[in-house]
Amino acid sequence: MVLTDQLTMPCISNTTSEFPIFLLTGFPGLEAFHIWISILFFLLSTVVLLGNSMILLVVILEPNLHESMHYFLFMLSITDLGLTLSTMPMTLSVLWFNAPQEISLNTCIAQMFFLHGFTFIESGVLLAMAFDRFVIICDPLRYTTIFTNARIAKIGISIILLVPPLPFTLKRLRYCNRHLLSHSYCLHQDVMKLACSDNRANFYYGLFVVLCMMSDSVFIAISYVFILKTVLGIASRGGAINTCALNTCVSHICAVLIFYVPLIGVSVIHRFGKHLSPLTHALMANAYLVVPPVLNHIVYTVKTKEIQRKIFQMFVETKITAEG
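RESULT FIELD:
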């Protein structure tokens, strides 16, 4: 969820619309390569769908993975699938037809709701995973009593219920004839800046939501400071360290970096990169949506032996069944 600092003033226009039609664009300056870019995006989308679906299937079918960390990984895979499915079809449509595609305000708001909603949920899930790792490293004796199945379900439901209705605030605005968006999907700040009416309330509400998400990263960092302090203390006393828990900590840190680095990068580009080309903005905005869904399941598959083992068993059993 990216925030622009651009407050638009009412434009001088006699033509406004309560039901505007917006135009989605691709990669400015690379129109000749849109078909090749679409092939790349299609392949990446296939990787996201197959990889995250495999994670979901493995967690469901493997009883040994029915524990808090893997439940949170299950939620993370769902959010990655949601991000891809809510944006990639429209992006591919723009690239395949090599021309701006029309989208109504209501459809745009619906896409933004899922896009920003899944982004907000993913931030909350990463925070919950950090607390999970903090408890298992710093207070392992209370881990099973704190992270019960009922409590994990409550955490998941709470994260979903806290999703802010940010896109719906755009319904109250009126729009001039400038309906060309900067990306191949709808973003709150991109639509907001096209409004002719006063959008200050949307700006400050968007700022509040972004600050809430950034606070998640602060709490994640604090949790790992305590984890590192605990691990160093155990090592100095010659005690045994839970290597399995530490291994999942590494996976989680990778997932946090994969999510927040592109997010912060796009925020910086929007805030300080007004002199940069539209192509730079388009590349960063698409990286912000493509990188986490593509890499998250790969990181957890590589770093989690239980998941590797179950996936291997599934392929072996499938091969034996096919040969039989």
